[in-house]
Each structure stands twice: as C-alpha cells, then as structure tokens.
Amino acid sequence: MTQFRRVTDQVSVSPQISVAAVDEAAAQGFRLIVNNRPDGEEPTQPSGHQIEAAAAAAGIAYAHIPVRGGPSREQVETMRRVIADADGPTLAFCRSGTRSIVTWAIGEAMSGARTRDELVQLGREAGYDLSAVLPG
C-alpha cells in the first residue's frame, strides 16, 4: 500500500506511486495527481503517461511538473496554480515525496499563505524536514 502523507486537508504527498495506487487515490477522494518526478529517473518507475492514463480512467485530473533538484520559480507557480484550480484534494508525488512538498511549501511561503514556522511544522508532521529549504 502506498503511503499518502497528509500535509493539509487539500494537499498530500507521497513517494512514487504505482498505476494501481491511482485507484487507491481515487477511493480516498483525491481529485488531482501532480507528478513531480521526471520520467526515466529509475528504470522501474512507471512513466508519467502511464500514471496520467490511470488518472484519466479513475476520473482524476493529472499534472506533470517534473522537478530536478530544487524547483524553479515557474515550477512553484505552476504547482500553486494547478492545486488552486483543483476541484478537491491533491496528491503530489516524486521519488520520496520531498520535491513535491518542497515545491508546494515554497509556493505557500512566496504567496504569504502560510508562515515559515507553520510550513516547517506541517512538513515535520508529514515526515519531511523543510527547515533548510524555507528562508528564515
């Protein structure tokens, strides 16, 4: 079973999901899947097209915002926009979930939606340390 880590009522993150996990995400009420992992990082990972097709079959919106290293401003803004436009909870994933939560958290911090302390706490509760990636 894939571990979906709740960050807020609207955003959860996860390590790499399988095609089968898309149905699990749909059953849990996710309305958008954001793939922050570039295709081909690992030979065994499902492709973005496979996850996208499974999402479409499950009635879930899909966005591919591949992040290598730290996210760019454009990637942060795109992620913020697609989550804001989603008609329900979002599940974002990458290899470990770190790039997903970092990209989301930077967008929250840049927009002033949440304080650094709040974001670090939300990250900690989800199992991620955001203290080094958010400006103090």
Structure description:
This protein is of the alpha/beta class. It has one domain: Protein-Tyrosine Phosphatase, Chain A (Alpha-Beta Complex), CATH 3.90.190.10. Helices cover about 45% and strands about 15% of the residues. The chain contains five helices and five strands, in the order ββαβαβαβαα. It has a five-stranded mixed sheet, with helices on both faces. Helix 2 links the parallel strand 3 and strand 4. About 35% of the residues are buried. The model has no long low-confidence stretch (mean pLDDT about 95).
Can you describe this structure in just a few lines?
The protein has 136 residues and is α/β, with parallel strands linked by helices.
Write the SSE topology.
Elements: E1 5-6, E2 11-14, H1 19-27, E3 32-35, H2 48-58, E4 61-64, H3 73-85, E5 90-93, H4 98-111, H5 116-126
Parallel strand pairs: 2-5, 3-4, 3-5
Antiparallel strand pairs: 1-2
Annotation field: number of helices: 5
CA radius of gyration is: 14 Å
CATH topology: Protein-Tyrosine Phosphatase, Chain A
Q: List the secondary-structure elements in sequence, H or E.
A: EEHEHEHEHH
What would the average pLDDT be, to the nearest integer? 95
State the shape: globular
Give the class-level CATH name.
Alpha Beta
- Poorly predicted tracts of residues: none
What oligomeric assembly is this protein in? Answer: single chain
Summarize the biggest pleated sheet: 5 strands, mixed
Tally of DSSP β-strands: 5
